[in-house]
Design brief:
The complex is a heterodimer of chains A (491) and B (319).
Chain A: E1 27-29, E2 32-33, H1 38-46, H2 49-66, E3 69-71, E4 80-82, E5 85-92, H3 94-118, H4 123-126, H5 132-136, E6 158-165, E7 171-177, H6 184-197, H7 199-205, H8 213-223, E8 237-240, H9 249-259, E9 262-264, E10 269-272, E11 275-280, E12 283-286, E13 289-292, H10 315-320, E14 325-327, H11 344-352, E15 359-360, E16 364-365, H12 369-377, E17 382-386, E18 395-397, H13 403-415, E19 420-424, E20 430-435, E21 438-443, E22 449-452, E23 456-458, E24 464-467, E25 481-488
Helix pairs in contact in A: 2-6, 3-11
Chain B: H1 3-33, H2 38-51, H3 64-72, H4 81-93, H5 101-115, H6 119-125, H7 127-148, H8 153-178, H9 191-203, H10 207-214, H11 220-229, H12 237-254, H13 261-275, H14 278-284, H15 286-309, H16 313-318
Helix pairs in contact in B: 1-2, 1-4, 1-7, 1-8, 1-9, 3-6, 4-5, 5-7, 6-7, 8-12, 8-15, 12-13, 13-15
The chains are: A alpha+beta (491), B mainly alpha (319).
């Protein structure tokens, strides 16, 4: 299946803007912009390219000076790199956003009910809607929290869901990130910079603000405070980071600063009589809610991985005793397992009795013999993913793979079929990006952030990730992706 | 404030103070050498190493290039200028959300500058420019800190680190000069000797301030009095200890732990310095006196660690 011959617009700066089968965010048809992109299109045509380049430099410099970096693993020095930002906003009309908002609210509600169910009675398993062995064989299923009741029954209070726009223009969910989703600081930083470099355009467009995210996050975390917390009106909330060498350390410092809460490492906390304290210069202070950016495995060496030095010995017992709340709860990873993902539409129907508002991407389960055979025959067309991985690691993109890579995956799938899923190669939608002095089309996805405390809150916007390499479909920052600001319009 | 954060701020400040001090020592020394015969300056190498607490090389061979390397860019020597700036930055990086953006950028700039300097630049071509830049970078950081960070608990730990380090450095440096005392103490010194004593004053950034107080006539006794007991000059032991005491009182109030060990120890050291007479000190032996100052300073440091940074959980749970 070859994409149709690319068409080009012969007007600078759009001289090299390419079209293919994917949905285009900006153009209805080559040369004709969609209504909500008209103003940006005009601006780009009118601005001299040098001016755009200057704006891009100003934006780049601003990121560099603020030190908005992430750490690349697999390098001795743990290099800090600036997260590449693209200048041109991705614009989403209000009506489309409303549907996304409803769809994601529905999804997080259903997934929380699912988690509560499988860690208690397991009705959905008994009813045969989701196969028992699929849940129990998941690496992220935590037997340790069976029967444990979490505040308000909320397991996932912070979620970042990856959406893609399919060629027909509809949004579909590609992945739920229910453990420790990252990237929200880039959403806020992108917005701050764009407001500086495109003030007029921004004002004329009427863009919904995102700046209240930190406040909304703090309110969400406070809503989860345990009933016996130290001070009922102002429970002590902290952010637990793995430390300065973590790839998202910048985000941790940023969020802690924005929320005005302490940024702690495992060594700052200790547990005595099932109460969590932090070690301050004024003595020990009790901690009520921990927004943890540390994976389950590393939280408590007495309960999970013994070689973890990032966690706090005894934390799990304090958690079981209900004296401290972790957000997200332990064991949420089972619901974003990529094989379980295929059952989310059924989960939504089971608990809410509604049809899913946002579609799933078709997924082949490789533990099923007939589906596996189909996939193994069509490896060069499909995308294969390891179920427990994230960040673009452990992936095979069929159309861009070599024979050797496919052979490697074939062997791995046959050895451990439960560990892999396959999906059709998606034509991620294209959005205009300012690269090499002109406007070019690149594939993008969208990660909105969903908060669930007293109620479900979505800050209108999200992180639009861009595959900066021409033709690439991988948007992860660790794999050469960048990001751009996302403008949700007021009307 | 988290103990770890306070600890990082304290050490960040100590490291930066040490880098600045070492840069000034070498800078002054190299300038002084231009006016001296090679023989006259030879003994000062050893003194420089002693003042920096670096063991002399085993083969006993010391020359300007190797010495400058050890004290400036040697990553193996944990108190070289480069090591200190790296450590200061690493400490600040771990508590970035606690300091102002301007502070971080300034320290980062200093780090990038020192880290990209090669030995030939530091020593052969622009030694003065390099060492001056380190001092200025540190001064700028202090200024930026004072004017952009709120003067709360965190700021007090930065003060504390700087002046604990400075007390120790000054006492050590003064000790290396008064260890031998060849000259009648209360008479003006001349020629070669004169240069040595001016060198000491300049190493404490004190030459001009000394002249304003005592005129340009250099008497070892007055130098000692100025550097040990002057309450107004920022690079005197007395001044530094006063600041340590003040910072500890402020921290005691902020953390509601007023009568703790660190304040009492620092207060005792303050009292010792403010009531001491220079003649008595010299009569009893200047070396013994500065050793006692350093020992008390080390006690203050240990007490800070024990009370604020690294206290035992049992003691904290009881209170």
């Amino acid at each position: 299946m070859n994409p149709p011959e690319p068409l080009t617009l012969f007007r600078p700066p759009f001289r090299n803007y390419q079209f293919d089968a994917a949905y285009d965010e900006m153009f209805k048809s080559p040369g004709t912009p969609r209504a909500h992109y008209q103003a940006l299109f005009q601006t780009l045509l009118e601005l001299p390219p040098e001016e755009l380049r200057k704006i891009q430099q100003a934006a780049d410099l601003s990121f560099l000076h603020q030190g908005i970096t992430f750490t690349v693993y697999g390098n001795d020095e743990g290099t800090e790199r600036v997260f590449p930002n693209d200048l041109l906003p991705r614009i989403i009309p209000n009506q489309e956003w409303r549907k996304i908002e409803n769809g994601l609210t529905q999804r997080i509600t259903a997934l929380n009910l699912f988690l509560e169910d499988i860690y208690h009675h397991g009705r959905i398993l008994a009813d045969g809607v989701v196969p028992r062995e699929l849940v129990y064989s998941c690496r992220h299923f935590r037997r340790e929290v069976r029967g444990l009741t979490v505040p308000r029954g909320i397991y996932v209070s912070i979620c970042g869901t990856d959406l893609v726009r399919l060629p027909d223009g509809s949004f579909a969910v590609l992945e739920d990130n229910l453990r420790v989703p990252s990237g929200v600081s880039y959403m806020l930083a992108n917005r701050k910079v764009l407001k500086k470099v495109f003030p007029t355009l921004f004002r004329d467009y009427g863009v919904c603000p995102v700046d209240h995210y930190a406040q909304a996050l703090l309110a969400t975390l406070r809503a989860l405070a345990p009933a016996n917390s130290s001070t009922r009106h102002e429970p002590k909330v902290v952010l637990l980071t793995p430390g300065v060498f973590n790839s998202a350390y910048f985000e941790h410092t940023f969020l802690a600063q924005q929320m005005g809460i302490e940024l702690v490492e495992g060594r700052d906390l200790l547990v005595h009589d099932n109460i969590v304290y932090m070690r301050t210069t004024a003595g020990l202070r009790r901690v009520d809610v921990i927004y943890r950016r540390v994976d389950d495995d590393f939280l408590d060496p007495l309960c999970f991985r013994q070689d973890s030095s990032l966690g706090v010995p005894g934390l799990f017992n304090a958690y079981r005793a209900g004296n401290v709340v972790l957000a997200n709860a332990i064991g949420t990873g089972v619901a974003d397992d990529k094989a379980l993902y295929a059952y989310v539409p059924a989960i939504i129907r089971y608990y809410l009795g509604e049809d899913p508002i946002l579609a799933n991407v078709h997924t082949y389960l490789l533990s099923d013999r007939s589906q596996r055979n189909y996939v193994l025959e069509h490896l060069d067309e499909l995308v294969v993913k390891a179920v427990g991985e994230s960040g673009g690691y452990g992936m095979l993109i069929g159309p861009h793979s070599t024979e050797a890579e496919r052979e490697d995956f074939r062997r791995r799938i046959e050895a451990e079929p439960r560990n892999y899923i396959a999906q059709p190669t998606l034509g991620l939608s294209r959005a205009p990006c300012f690269l090499d002095g002109e406007v070019q089309a690149r594939h993008v996805d969208l990660r909105p952030y969903i908060l669930y405390g007293e109620n479900v809150t979505l800050v209108p916007g999200g992180l639009t990730r861009v595959a900066l390499r021409r033709g690439s479909l991988v948007v992860n920052s660790s794999q050469g992706g960048g990001s751009k600001d996302t403008w949700v319009l007021r009307a | 404030m988290l103990s770890r954060v306070a600890d990082s701020l304290y050490w960040m400040s100590r490291y930066l103070e040490r880098a600045e001090h070492t840069a000034r020592l070498i800078d002054v020394d190299l300038q002084l050498r231009l006016d001296q015969s090679p023989e006259a300056g030879a003994g000062r190498w050893l003194r420089l190493l002693e003042a920096s607490q670096v063991p002399p090389p085993e083969d006993g061979k010391i020359d300007a290039a190797s010495l400058t390397h050890i004290l400036t860019l040697d990553r193996q020597n944990s108190s070289s200028i480069l090591s200190c700036v790296v450590a200061a930055r690493e400490n600040l990086r771990q508590v970035r959300e606690q300091c102002s953006t301007e502070m971080w950028e300034q320290l980062n700039r200093l780090y990038l500058q020192v880290n990209s300097t090669t030995a030939s630049e530091a020593w052969l071509l622009h030694s003065h420019v390099f060492f001056r830049a380190v001092q200025e970078g540190a001064h700028l950081f202090q200024g930026v800190t004072d004017s952009t960070m709120s003067h709360g608990e965190g700021w007090q730990y930065i003060q504390l680190g700087r002046f604990v380090e400075r007390t120790d450095e000054l006492a050590r440096l003064i000790g290396t000069y008064f260890g031998r005392l060849p000259h009648p103490l209360d008479q003006a010194v001349e020629s070669e000797e004169y240069l040595e004593w001016v060198g000491l004053l300049k190493s404490c950034a004190a030459f001009e301030a000394y002249c304003k107080t005592y005129t340009a006539e250099i008497r070892p006794l007055r130098v000692a009095e100025f550097l040990l007991l002057n309450p107004e000059f920022p690079h005197s032991v007395r001044f530094s200890v006063d600041r340590v005491h003040a910072a500890l009182i402020a921290i005691g109030e902020l953390t509601e732990r007023k009568a703790e060990q660190p304040v009492r120890l620092a207060g005792r050291l303050c009292a010792t310095l403010s009531f001491s007479q220079i003649e008595e000190i010299m009569a009893q032996g200047a070396n013994g006196y500065v050793d006692s100052v350093r020992w008390q300073c080390a006690q203050v440091h240990t007490a800070i660690q024990q009370v604020y940074f690294d206290y035992s959980v049992e003691s904290a749970l009881v209170s």
